[in-house]
Amino acid sequence: MSELDPGRHIQKARSLSAGFSLSNITKAEPYIDNVLRLFKSRFDELSDSGAPVEFQQWFSYFAFDVLGEVTFSKSFGFVQSGSDIRNAIANTGSLVYYISIMGNYIWFHNLTLGNPLFSRLGLQPNSHIFDTCLLAVENRKNNPEVRHDMMQRWLDARASHPDRLSENDIFGAAVANIGAGAETVSATAQAVLYYLLRHPEYMKRVQSEIDAAQARGELSSLIQYHEAAKLPFLQACVSSQY
Ligand code: HEM
After folding, report:
1. pLDDT in tens, 46-80
2. Which residues have C-beta within 8 Å of that of residue 77, sequence separation ≥ 6?
3. For residue 150, which of 19, 31, 170, 180 is within the disulfide window of CB 3.0 to 4.6 Å?
4. Do 65 and 27 share a structural domain?
């Protein structure tokens, strides 16, 4: 996303693609499950107290934390805290306006937020998301037990071809990945639940499908990716291929 040259864009996308393979992402499932467990207990608390559940907020907390886990093995802690830490998610909303305008006037961006002097002098606006990415990148340098997450795949790609990806490229890809992945996943999850709630007959059908598979002993207590893939009606609700 941060690349303007089409040739370099293709080259970078190729070097980064290993991180996006399904086999790589499914390795992160146990860690995504941890976020999911916490998410479920938060929903139980809200439900017990009778408080309304703001989908917009909660699904964003969830999606950002999952993206932190799969990208660099570190959740942002939004679900844990139950809040938008330092207004980080809300601020990404304002950033969209900046990007949509400055994306057309790169020369002006290069004079403002894109100016390296700004970052060197510490004048760039920082955020919980940016700071957490930076910390995660720093911490892993001294951590011998790092997981084989997306960032590790990219660092491996850099180790074999240092000319194709710089360290800055990897950091840029990690931040872009959080932005690109979290809002899309959050919006999709909200839409699936919203439309199922608006159509109780389909909600009932998807629930019956899950209950029947559970009764046959085909589901773990937290449904796994390969188990959900065998539920055709659920797949029809969540997948764009139908
Ligand atoms: C419902 C979910 C999603 C939708 C609908 C979606 C859609 C898109 C679209 C339309 C593009 C532009 C493609 C292009 O210009 O050719 C894109 C790019 C991108 N998406 Fe997604 N996306 C989703 C989820 C994700 C997730 C989960 C991640 C990360 C794990 C992600 C990471 C990216 C990245 C890094 C790019 C930029 C690729 C590049 O510059 O070559 N997206 N996405």
Report:
1. 999 999 989 999 999 999 999 999 998 889 999 99
2. 65, 85
3. 19
4. yes
